[in-house]
Amino acid sequence: MTKPSIRRIAPAVLACLAACAVALPAPLLAAPFAYVPNEGSGTISVIDTANDQVVGEMPGGTKPRGLAVGADGRRLYVSDQPNNRLQVLDLATRKLGTAVALGESPEGVSISPDGRWVVAAIEGKNEIAVTDTRSGKLAFAIPVHGKNPEHAVFSPNGRLLFVSAEEGDAVDIIDFASRKQVAQVAVGARPRGIGFLPDSSRAYVATENANEVFVIDTTGYAIVARIKAGLRANGIAVHPGGGQVYVSNGGDANVSVIDTASNRVVATIPVGQRPWNMALTPDGKKLYVANGRSNNVSVIDTASRTKLRDIPVGKLPWGVVIK
User: Fold this and answer.
1) Is 9 among the domain residues?
2) Exposed site from 102, 232, 248, 311, fewest CB < 10 Å?
3) What's the CATH number where 142 sits?
4) Apex CA 86: angle with CA 42 and CA 68, to 5°?
């Protein structure tokens, strides 16, 4: 029997591999992606963090704000503020799927570490709406004492949910297993972004009108440090190594870097106008900052603490989530 020619087989194999690659869903071709909600455009920009290029744009509802990516990387959960709902996007097709009615004016969104629950801060009802990712339906709501909640963020261990009360000058703390608020910590005026150290021991809270970051011990619910930040301190991102916390200063068009060992600002990095919410790549090498008034995203090299570039996106980008 004549043996098949290797030269004849190789092109066929290559052609098959090429066809298979084309057929793969977009999120599987490169990772991670940065997703940016553009509240002025009603879109979600998709950035490939390997080359910092916008590789797609998805519908996000009328005014997309908070974002969370499902644990399997196949769904994106988006708060559509004027329509009072949580939009679910299929990341394979990059199209809108189901929608979950939440309540008046949903804002920040986060997902539990186990991927089971998506929570959204509901400003108009002073509560946290909780959606079950398995059923795709609203499961329950947890009332909070603070007025006008903006962000609801899980601790990395999934035990606690910290909620910034924009008009309450406080952080509401929810024990998620018992589904009830267990403490409230008074902080500076207009608290916004929240981030936790990787071991869940401390939370960092930016206060926009006080221009400070408050550090809260998650065991005793006590303030252990107050750090002077820039004008209109807003977003918070915590390095996966736990050594640095990044704070966006909306009025100063820069990002402060806090050393968590000393709880002092050790660097300031210029970015675009009105920096808002931010996210780090999983390896912690790059920080992506949404600049609301510049309509772009600044990319920061965390090792050198310098801005690498600005990436144009849609109108009024509100934040970034990376998966």
Assistant:
1) no
2) 311
3) 2.130.10.10
4) 85
Residue whose pair of structure tokens reads 């509560």 in the numeric block: 127
Q: How far apart, in whole angstroms, are the C-alpha atoms of residue 101 and residue 211?
A: 34
Per residue in 67-104, pLDDT tens?
999 999 999 999 999 999 999 999 999 999 999 999 99
Backbone dihedral angles phi then psi of residue 79, each to the nearest 5 degrees: -85, 120
Q: State the residue range of the domain holding 280.
A: 31-322
297-311 confidence digits (pLDDT tens): 999 999 999 999 999
| DSSP per-residue letters across 108-170 | EEEE-TTS-EEEEEETTTTEEEEEETTTTEEEEEEE-SSSSEEEEEE-TTSSEEEEEETTTTE
Vertex 75, ends 59 and 238: CA angle to 5°? 100
Which pLDDT score is estimated for 4?
38
- Evaluate the omega torsion of the peptide bond into residue 32 and state whether it is cis, within 30 degrees of 0: yes
The DSSP call for residue 3 is P
Pairing of strands 244-249, 233-238: antiparallel
Name the strand (E) or helix (H) holding 21.
helix 6-23
One-letter identity of residue 293: R
The candidate with the shortest Cα–Cα distance to 216, out of 236, 240, 239, 241, is 236
For residues 282 and 239, give the distance between their C-alpha atoms in angstroms, rounded to a whole number: 9
Q: What is the maximal distance between C-alpha atoms in the chain?
A: 84
Nearest Cα neighbor of 231 from 286, 279, 268 is 268
Please check whether residue 14 lies inside any domain of the structure: no
